Amino acid sequence: MLCDPPEQTEAQIAEALQASRGSINTMTRLLQVWGAECLGVAGRLGGCYRIKPVSSVKLLHNEARMFSEIPSLAERSLEAIRNEPLRVRERLRLLEGRDLFAFVEKEYPLLIEKWQQKRRKQLR
Description:
The protein is mainly alpha-helical. About 65% of the residues lie in helices and about 10% in strands. Helix 3 (about 55-80) packs antiparallel against helix 5.
């Protein structure tokens, strides 16, 4: 978001951050969920990355969708190991992630709406 020009190759990002190309590759993939995009560049292998000019609220909605997948993944996992010994099933059952993300799935949209209401009041 702060670089000039706003489009940077992985090599440029790695050099600026003094990070390995492998780390940058991994993080650019993750950042694509958060709003980075890869722009193809004619005559160049790979591309340039930039942060899309998108509202933060849209990014939060994307994150909320990711949160909503975790409880169902946990449920499918529990179903897949239903015939395993209790000690195996208990490890997954005791993980509070399923319940936490089910809670977050319900509360996150309310939090986003609360922020939007506050923001509308500020902009009046």
